[in-house]
Automatic annotation (TrEMBL):
Protein's name in the database: Uncharacterized protein
Length: 30
């Protein structure tokens, strides 16, 4: 597996996790 694919997978995971975390924080403070 190439480094580019690994970095791309990590980037996608970070984006989805940060958006999920933002939704969770938004619901807590709502």
């Amino acid at each position: 597996m190439s480094i580019e694919l690994i970095l791309l997978a990590i980037n996608i995971n970070l984006v989805s996790f940060s958006s999920y975390l933002g939704d969770l924080v938004g619901q807590v403070f709502a």
